[in-house]
Design a protein that fits this description.
The complex is a heterodimer. Chain A has helices at about 1-30, 40-55, 90-100, 115-125, 140-145, 155-160, 165-170, 175-180, 205-210, 220-230, 270-275, 300-310, 325-330, 350-355, 395-410, 430-445, 460-470, 490-505, 520-545, 550-575, and strands at about 65-75, 105-110, 135, 180, 185, 190, 200-205, 245, 285, 290-295, 335-340, 360-365, 375-380, 385-390, 510-515. Chain A is an alpha/beta fold. A four-stranded mixed beta sheet of chain A has the order 8-11-7-12. A three-stranded antiparallel beta sheet of chain A has the order 3-14-6. A two-stranded parallel sheet of chain A has the order 1-2. In chain A, strand 1, helix 3 and strand 2 (about 105-110) form a beta-alpha-beta unit. Chain B is mostly helical. In chain B, strands 1-2 form a two-stranded antiparallel ribbon. In chain B, helix 4 packs antiparallel against helix 10 (about 200-220) and helix 5 (about 100-110) packs antiparallel against helix 8. The chains are: A alpha/beta, B mainly alpha. At the A-B interface, helix 1, helix 4, helix 5 and helix 19 of A face helix 1, helix 2, helix 13 and helix 14 of B.
Chain lengths: ~575, ~300
Amino acid sequence: MAKRFMLVSLVFILLLSACSGGGNNTENATRHTDNGNSSTNVSGEKEATEDESKEQADPFGKYAETITLNYGKEVDPTDKSLPEGDTPENNQYSRYIKEVLNIDTKVTWQAASGTNYDQKVNLAISSNDLPDALIVKDSQLRAMVKAGQLADLTEAFEKYASPSVKKFMEKTNGVSQKSVTFDGKMYAIPSIQVQSDGVHQMWIRKDWLDKLGLEAPKTIEDLEKVARAFVEQDPDDNGKDDTIGIAGQQNGGRLYANFLESTNNTYGLDPIFGAYQSYPGFWLKNESGEAVYGSILPETKEALAKLRDMYANGLIDRELGIRKSASETVTDGKAGIFFGPWWMGYGPLPDAIKNNPEANWQAYLLPLDADGEFNAHMGAPSTLFVVVRKGYEHPEAVIKMLNLLVRDESTFDISVPIGHYPLRVPMSYTDESEYSAQALREVLAGTKTAADFTDPGYKLLAADIANIKKVKKEPYDNLDIEYWDPKADEGTWKRAYSLLVGSSSLTQDYNKIYSVLYSQTKTMESRWTNLKKLEDETFLKIIMGAAPIDDFDKFVEDWKRQGGDIITKEVQEHVK
Amino acid sequence: MRNQSFTKHYYIMLLPGFIWLLLISIIPMFGIVIAFQDFNPGKGFFQSEWVGLDNFEYMFALNDTPVIFFNTVFIAVMKMIGNLIVPLIFAIMLNELRMMIVKRWIQTIVYLPHFLSWVILSGILLDVFSYTGPINTVMTFIGLDPILFFARADLFPFIIVASDVWKEFGFNTIIYLAALTSINPSLYEAAAIDGAARLRRMWHVTLPGLRTTIVLLAVLSLGNVLNAGFDQIFNLYNPLVYSTGDIIDTWVYREGLLNMQYGLATAVGLLKSVVSFILIIVSYQLASRFANYRIF
């Protein structure tokens, strides 16, 4: 009898765990919601007001007593730059903050950069279990404001933000300010990014071009010709048919930047779309001034047809969208062309050059459209936001940290990447990279000197000018890799190469296309995932030949029917 | 009947299981209220706005819903069948093996993959099936065109099922092998004396001896008919195979965690649990009728 009961109980457990297993994923995630911050809230706010009245509003003021700031950190798992004994939590930057501001920064949790970090932040939001401060994206910021999880930073920013930081904000014509203001209150400190983060250019192996006697491709036809030569003529001379014309995006990556993630889409195919005046993923204005979604326009179909053609001819990485890591193709010296923003000197190029010191990657604003123009869709000036949990005693601490970063960034030894600075978001003038590139050129040419550049807002320029000759060999106007000395000072080289090679071209004229909207509307909150899935799936299938090009028309219809039309109306309302 | 003091140990041994169940499976079940709310994490379960069945209505209006339910059931049922039959055949084959050392070795080696997580195995699989990977190299060698396996929506469910069966069959084999040892050897002897050959003995002695185990495993696995394996698919899929590879769990992950649509995602998860529950009841009835297997 007893034995039978044992068996019954055992099986009962198995059954229960089997049927409850289904609900777990979501339910676990959304548990622990009501673990009452309320009591700490009240006392916290009181303390904060007392503190503020005692302490003078000094943007760089050192706390009399050490305060603790817990935050969630994004860590690049491939980064091995930290010296022995240092950790993501305790490194040169955190120690500097401790020393100057007396803020003890503690890492509550860390997650690998990209999706992992986003997911971790989403979990923190949904379980209402937030560290004192975090870096979040636009959609997360909105969710947190809606959930009432954030501290109002209006007053703290007004009091404590340094003049430089305020000036950066002003330079975006209120766009950055608007992106963090809800009902007249400021709920986050926005990043203020260089506009070049959103301009994707063509990076190409110039040594391969030279070997095969080719020029950098100007038009789409040229691009096809060059890519074909890269694939067929064994430019790496290893006797194997293993080279890739144009590198493609990895699994989970974006084929093109979109209005929600509008910048830094390395390995995307953005410039090829641009050459057809197609801007998928962006909200554009049509001739009558109304908002339309770029992905459903006929230009996009045209671009997709060409991409499909190129893929079928083997000019684009065959493992487009499937590959685990797109950077491999560049660092291993397999790919001849990829598209990316100006800062490729920070990565993946250092690894590419370590593997092959002759890999001469150069950047061009190409290919051009039928009218001979380069079209770039432009990113939002602010895509990252530093937020502070409601009830944290020292909301101004993060502002002080950013003040300090802006003031002293140029003095840091960046062989440890600046990403290790706690709660660092990029802050600068939006034209910083073009301006710095131009300045460096003039200094190298001898037409200007360091004394000509005095605006301290270009915070790294003085250091750039002082160090440039350490890594740039003569002749100064030849940017080929053989005239650089990356080993002399790798930190400086990364920045200087990114500026001179990656940003010089941006001083040319090119068409800048802005999205009319860089955030979600109401209906998007519930519908966008599905529309996005439809789009991703259809476009990737069309390019890779798994669906006919005419599926595009069906996509447009489905997209409109499944909520696209409603959303378009909302966007039109928003723009008016 | 045994005395009470002896059986007490068993209850104590069960306790951790019950506590685990309570913490991990029962308590979180109250989270299903989110399915009927416009959940706001700042306000919690108690203050969030109630929206009735809105989330369910929207769910059924979505074009995706039938597709992801079909994908889930298709993949899960194929996995159930594969994980029932392949280990059974393998266990019987192993049982017929007379060299104990070889048997032990094979047994150990085939169940090794069970202990690797899908995060690791998916990396290996992606490499093995990649355009320049070993499988395509062999295919080119014998004159076939290389295939981009993970770009083929038509092949994806089968790769998923095959790799899952490959990972798990060694482990399931052990369950069958354990059951095989409980078959009375005298039955085999009697059958041999009656002149039954090897295959006959397998059919008339081994399989009936395993019947209860097979039914038990089938019944228990029916509860998983809507669990197609999140870890595995999440690590292997991409937009090209959404049409055949997107399952309830991956969809809920994208919608609930990435897009923060808690209500909708919980509604889908709840529906899944309800369907699973019904399936378990039904399968139990079937088992009691056809295999005379009863728990209560």
